């Protein structure tokens, strides 16, 4: 599970604009108790929209 968590966030970072990166660096990655939080579908969709990327491109990056 940790590997998938890290891959998701790393893929979002690769697609994000500098403005989006600031949002991705926020407290969204971990709960207050330190438990990792997966990115929401909304966050993934917004990042894809801003970057002009498709879900297929996102999946390709996840596999690379």
How would you characterize this protein structure?
The structure is a single chain. This protein has 64 residues and is mainly α. The protein has one domain (2-63). It contains four helices and no strands. The chain has helices at residues 2-15, 18-24, 41-51, 55-63. The protein is globular, with a radius of gyration of 11 Å. The mean pLDDT is 84.
Entry keywords:
mainly alpha, 64 residues, 4 helices
Number of helices: 4
> Which descriptor suits the 3D outline?
globular
The helix content, as a percent range, equals: 55-70%
Q: In angstroms, what separates the terminal alpha carbons?
A: 17 Å
**Class of secondary structure makeup:** mainly alpha
Give me the secondary-structure topology.
Elements lengths: L1 H14 L2 H7 L16 H11 L3 H9 L1
Short characterization:
With 64 residues, the protein is mainly α. It has 4 helices and no strands.
């Amino acid at each position: 599970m940790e590997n998938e968590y890290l891959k998701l966030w790393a893929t979002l970072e690769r697609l994000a604009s500098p403005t989006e990166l600031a949002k991705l660096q926020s407290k969204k990655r971990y709960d207050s108790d330190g438990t990792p939080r997966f990115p929401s579908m909304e966050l993934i969709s917004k990042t894809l929209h801003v970057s002009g990327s498709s879900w297929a491109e996102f999946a390709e990056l996840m596999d690379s």
